[in-house]
Known about the structure:
The protein is 46% helix and 15% strand. The chain has 36 helices and 30 strands. The longest helix has 24 residues, at 816-839.
Amino acid sequence: MVLEWSKIEEKWRKTWESLHIFEADINPKREKYFLTVAYPYPNSPQHIGHGRTYTLADVHARYMRMRGKNVLFPMGFHYTGTPILAMSKRLAEGDEELIDTFNRIYGVPSAKIEEFKEPLEIAKYFHEEIKQGMKEIGYSLDWRREFTTIDLQYSRFIEWQFRKLRKTGYIVQGSHPVGWCPKDGNPVGQHDTLGDVEPEIGEFILIKFNLDGCLLPCATLRPETVFGVTNIWLRPDAHYVRSRVNDEEWMVSKEGSRKLGYLNLKVEEMERVKGSDLIGKWAENPLTGLRVPILPASFVDPKNATGVVMSVPGHAPYDYQALEDLKKKKEEFSPYGIDPKLLDSITPISIIELEGYSNLPALDVIKKMAIKSQEDPKLEEATAEVYSREFHSGRMKTNTMQYVGLPVSIAKERVKEDLVKSKKGDIFYEILNRPVVCRCGAECIVKIFENQWFINYGDENWKELARDCLGHMDIVPEDLRPEFEYTIRWLRQKACARKSGLGTKLPWDREWVIESLSDSVIYMAYYTLSKYIKSNRIGPDQLTNEFFDYVLLGEGNLEEVSRITMMKEELLEKIREEFRYFYPPDSRHSGRDLVPNHLTFFIFNHAAIFPPELWPKQIVVNGSVLMEGKKMSKSFGNIIPLREAIRKFGADPLRLAILSTAEVSQDADFSPALAKSLNGRLERFYEFAIGVIDLQDDYEGARPSNEDRWLISRLQSVVKAVTEAMDKLRIREAINHSLYELDQDLQWYLRRSPMKGSPRNNKAMARVLKDLVEVRVRLLAPFAPYLCEEIWERMGNDGLVSVADWPIYNEKKVDEKAEEVEEMLMRTIEDTVNIIKVKKIEPNRIYYYTSAEWKWGAYLKSLDILETGATDIGGLIKKLTEDVRMKKVGKELYKFVQRIYDELRGMPLEMRQRRSRVRALDEFRVLRDSTGFLEKELNAKVEVYREEDGERFDPMNRAGLAQPYRPAIYIS
RNA sequence: GCGGGGGUCGCCAAGUCUGGUCAAAGGCGCGAGGCUCAGAACCUCGUCCCUAAGGGGUUCGUGGGUUCAAAUCCCACCCCCCGCACCA
């Protein structure tokens, strides 16, 4: 039999919807549980990886619901941001790669892609796609509260949040450098660039050498080497521009000149010259006053910074090598009017002392690496070495003015500061890993973004509040707490708005759109409002500041708020009540990647806006999903869309497969084989359950056997273990117990009590099995809700298992003795098999000899003695022989105690106590009653004797080896 | 560089806080047997090495240490992964 998942799924999905069981409203009689998970960004379909976070949250929601909580589990859609716009643009431009992705991987029909020229169409399309998938996989969401972050009403909410933050002084304005696409006129992040390169912004120092009144700003990362400058490098074949820059005249490369504007300098181009026209002229070092010649070098890149480079041959390998190259072919440079003698006269200046190197570290490294020309790529490495060594252990020499004796790392900062202060230098931001190319094809540059709005997470008072909030929260898994603490510590100002993208405009500065990590931090509160906003058709104009102040903070006068918002007082009160009922969030689920940003902002913003009693209580963080051990990625082609996976494997097996391979914080590994095997396991459970349901359920006169009591008892420990695991969200462990270990117990039970003939003959067994199915179907319901509903219904229950009560651990049903007996039996079989294996014999008859009574006496007494304190073996025997009956046993006792001593001592305390409580087992009876079972298991005749039975058959005299819990064995 | 996580018997992965039935759960893979016309599925057993009757030996990144006892505690070292922002 194969389950038709799609049919079962559809049936129950419809039932859930029509009965509205996942819609939560105020119910003062029931305790609420408010759980949210990060809403999706609809720019692609969900895949299995997304499924993990949501499925985990759903399992959590379903569990709490079964625990009797009034669970609110809602969902929204995060439209805010720029990627959808960028995608739309690329599609409109006919980007083959993206079209192919949409077509082939996302399965979007070509006609639809046409419509995607309108960005909102993309969002709407994937919104529906994702929502459909969430329904299909069985998430127990309250869809009435759904919204998108560009709904006008939501915008009013975000505006309120931002006014609130600004009023508290947490919003500040400032300037900072960003990676920038000059064509798009937008900041660029990693996802905006070809090859997903993050633009690295570096700080060059411009040192302004004076060339006859015009300044030559040499760009350097090492301003402290200004004392070692012997000349200036220009690229002879490049174009340079003389411009008026603010109040000065500058000479920089054509490309560099363009960048100056983006760095907020006023640039007015005056004259273009070729590099070669400047070669041979002299410029003055602004710090030392030394005049140095301008020389040609091919390694100079006019596209990098200003295209003007100062030459420090003593400490910069490039400079040294370029000078050498020049000296080798002086003649070639006569057209520039350079006197060959001049070249010879230029010698490197040593300004930094570095242990392990000569005066000229640059030369040392060039020699070491056997570099022959300035075109040699090894020069990069050489530069890095000199830079790093000098930075960390170099000291400034006596020829460095007021910086003498300083470590290079400090001198570098000082020189920079002094240069900038005295206007002899400037800061110039440049992309270090250039070229970084925007997806539009233009090369990215650095722009100083002016008047940028920031949320000031660097505010110490705010940080204190955030720490306070975090300190009261439950973090699952707990090991992630340090990461939150660290993030709170290093967070500084965070740009919170940009000039483009979907979202809410800053209420006080409409040019700016609030960016996505800032409009998604307290929206959980909005779920409690959106239900009313939708059902009462409340318009954005009604959602004034007063509205939110009243509803969310209880501030203001009801009458007045009612007047301003044109809402009835009752309605306002009702909304306020709903918010107060559900808030704060009891649990927030999200992926690991959001810890250093979203989740920490979530803490900050709650701490800033809400009073402590409304601060969130828990964060649950989960790892990602690997596909058969590999990271999922488009280039591997191993991304399975969620809906496809549901169709292929079934929702329930898929849910289990995503959750069962790793605990929450670890990365889970998905494999189709696993999903299939889970499918099989669920099918078997289904078949088994159906079979059990048909058993006669007249329990009268049922007398449970030991194995019945054992299974009942085991079931209780499974209930206990699963419940404890679920409380800690140790989902994997819960699945392990309810799905795998319980199955093993069941297999043993069925072997022990085969349904011989008609199972109707065994009423006790029917009862046990029914109990088991009844409990198990509920234990599995959060994981495999569809199948469990189906079985639950077949069992004749009226209600739905989704809202049934979670099984309660019943200590009364625990039977320690039954468990010990079964374990003894298993152990005996194991030992027997072991002997058979080692001896390589085909057994005819197997004889068991159970321990003499005195051994049980000594065994139990020993347990008690060892429990009260550590005793050595001598002490133990001494104590035992205080008993006269033991004394009579004599030498046998010594031998026996010697054999059990180590075993007892190594035994876990819990087990010792249990065996002590259980007292003696009637092993003889247990084994004799199980003879039939043992014979079948071992495929031989079985006989059982007591050790003290004088008539026993014992040719090898093995009976004496018997120990409690370990009958002696003889095999013939 | 700073911060976080991790290295366990073919692979994945529990166990580590709270030392002791831990040669170490579970899954996958592999092997044998059962079932079957056959196969798949399923069930049972096995899957570090040795074994002489239920036993022994060597294992949990590496090297030391503490302890009657260490995967687990302490010290040092090696290796791997992730984050460091204006972006969802």
